[in-house]
Design goal:
The protein has eleven helices and no strands. It is an all-alpha fold and about 180 residues long. The longest helix is centred in the last third of the chain and has 20 residues. The chain is globular. About 30% of the residues are buried.
């Protein structure tokens, strides 16, 4: 029990530090790495549910440091595994476009693209298609973007994009 309290305090402290204003990308990357090491529970994820944390994790997706991007993606992946934090994540208008930017940018490392794609698929699988935060993905422009990615991507990326379209269709059908 005491260990759980320590982890909760540590995660809250890391989140508070992470959202500070005068912190460099390198320090945020280190803090994201520390946050990622903490095994979140529903309660600790809810305690971290914070608009500024989401904003800063999203900002990390556009930093120059590839390891910072990866750590941010890992934190986001852990964070959205829970309903309330995922809803908070989707209420912010920036995360989905930031993920799409990572996926579509040609200069982004393949590992980062795959992780961003995993997160996008996870959000689609665990959220109703009518959720306002998914409008970008389920819009005709979003679908057209995926089709464009299919036609211009390498074969392994095409498979991932086709799986995404199939998943989206299944989610719409089950809704």
């Amino acid at each position: 029990m005491e260990e759980m309290r320590m982890k909760a305090r540590r995660s809250k402290a890391a989140a508070r530090c992470f959202t500070g204003r005068d912190i460099s990308d390198e320090i945020r990357a280190y803090m994201a790495e520390e946050l990622e090491q903490i095994q979140l529970s529903e309660t600790s994820a809810r305690n971290l549910q914070n608009e500024r944390l989401i904003v800063h994790l999203t900002e990390m997706l556009s930093c120059r440091n590839p390891s910072g991007k990866m750590e941010s993606l890992e934190c986001i992946k852990q964070f959205i595994a829970f309903n309330k934090p995922r809803s908070c994540f989707l209420q912010n208008e920036c995360p989905i476009p930031a993920l799409l930017c990572l996926i579509t940018r040609k200069t982004v490392q393949e590992e980062l693209k795959q992780k961003a794609q995993e997160i996008r698929m996870s959000v689609i699988q665990t959220t109703q298609p009518s959720h306002p935060g998914l409008q970008t993905i389920f819009s005709s422009n979003g679908i057209q973007d995926i089709i464009n990615q299919i036609t211009t991507s390498a074969p392994e990326d095409q498979i991932s994009q086709l799986r995404l379209l199939l998943l989206m269709q299944q989610e719409v059908d089950s809704f």
